[in-house]
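#struct-queue
[09:14] JT: dropping the first one here, sequence first, then the structure tokens:
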Amino acid sequence: MWQLKNKDMYPAELVQPMRDELTAVGFEQINDVKKIEDAINGEGTTLVVVNSVCGCAAANARPGVRFSLDNEKVPSTLVTVFAGVDREATDAARSMMVPFPPSSPSMALFKDGELVHMLERHHIEGRPADLIAENLRQAYDEHC
């Protein structure tokens, strides 16, 4: 029987391919509280993706985010945390997404540290990746 290291909800081998889907298109995987706070509070626009192992992350969220980057305007910083694995960094990111309740997957666009656009799980689940991408592109066009 396998044991979880560092009290992670999921083993590293399981989530690595899901992390790679985003890092392959330019996202920085963050597992440190200070790094996520610095990224969000930095100048310019920052897209934060709270990644997840769920089916809607695989079928809708990650593909939608990847497709959204095919746009004239895109965020200056792309970061991701993994729910259930990067617990402290995920909690720190979610604390900056208030008043929205924690959800995974989710996507938040910040401009100069201010939350300007949010996609919660209920905006992602059951919606095609193209629709998610278009929603994000509209936010990029307005804020980036």
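[09:21] JT: and here's the second one, same format:
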Amino acid sequence: MSLSKKQFGLFYVPVTPTSPSSSLSSRLPNSLFIRGGRIIDPASGRDEIGDLLVEDGHIAESTAKPKDIAIPVIDARGLIVAPGLIDMHVHLREPGGGQKETIASGTRAAAAGGFTSILAMPNTNPPADGPNTIALMRQRALETACVNVFTTGCITVGMKGEELAPIGSLHKAGIVALTDDGHCVQNNEVMRRALDYARMFDLLTLDHCQDYNLSAGGVMHEGYWSTVLGLPGWPRIAEDMIVARNILLSELTGARIHVQHLSSGDSVRLVREAKKRNVKISAEAMPHHIALTDAALEKYDTNFKMNPPLRERIDQEALLAGLADDTIEILASDHAPHASYEKEVEFADAPFGIVGLETELGLFIKILIEGRVLDWTSLLAKLTINPARLLKLDRGTLAPGAAADITLIDPKHSWKVDASKFYSLSRNTPFNGWELPARATHTIVAGHVIWSLDKEFGD
């Protein structure tokens, strides 16, 4: 039987079967044999050269290729075979922002970056603050996505920080976390009540940490370069104040809080100290905050404008230390697409945000592996099993019986970033022209090769 494109999203890229003359009826559906790769599964501690068998969309107990049955084979010699990568911080813009990104284009970008699962933020238009919008997003993902799309719901109605969203209904609609990302709940009492409900439904709460009074009007980090460039500053303490608040609220309520896109070295210290007290706090870091500093804004390029902003070298060093000691257990992109006409304005008027799905893996390898901050197991844990456990997803492992979401990585495939070739509808990246040392070669979802470096999205 042939595999339907509709069955697993829009895109399916077949690999060559071992015996092209074999009858289709003799093939195992949704099956695959991956030969001779370096299998790294942080969830089980596995790191060895070996084979991996996929049967009917799941990881098989056996590692031997079936006899007398033709299934596709991938020669993975020289490649890393990892659980499918998970990005738990992605803006897909649909509904309401189709000129920037859609679920179809965003998931294509994810697949091209090696990601098999992504977590969609709720700052759409309308915001995902009710079950109807969640149902729409899930239906669009079912119809058009080529990777797994998990949804978040808003903490507050309209993301205004004033009235709680119907958290129970959002949970019933299928969300896996709460957030007002792009906005921060300023009212501490509202945030406390939201956390009470989140704990009731065992939902992780993701928070964009920004005190609006302290950051008011800021468009870049407050420091030497904001003074030189004459731009309003966004001080790191505006992040630190909310991180500290969230730590205290987590202690009070017992709710799980995840600090999004850490940028401040002092916030890293606060999270580290809270974890020593077993506070239910977690944190993530983005490639741009560990790759760049505020000095990069010297030419007023709006592709370097993001929220929270690029900070100083001392903050960058603190983030790297936090990644090394596992204070920061998640790596993600904060993929935030914007149309070119939105960014092609004066710096102060441009929206915050950059795209990241197609470059983040290469950047993390360049900075963290080549920089000897992390080994491969630690890096992949922050992109697979750690986000899966935080979000309580049945993903992130190559254990027998697990869904066959797999990413193959060539650690020696250097390439040059060319934003004009992105699958994302937007091009707002500060990394155009960068040379990166490695990239994904195959993205496999439920046993289907959704994307490969050789065939990309063509049949």
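[09:30] RK: nice, looked through the second one.
[09:31] RK: The chain has two domains: 6-81+403-452, 85-391.
[09:31] JT: good to know. The first strand starts at residue 32 and ends at 41.
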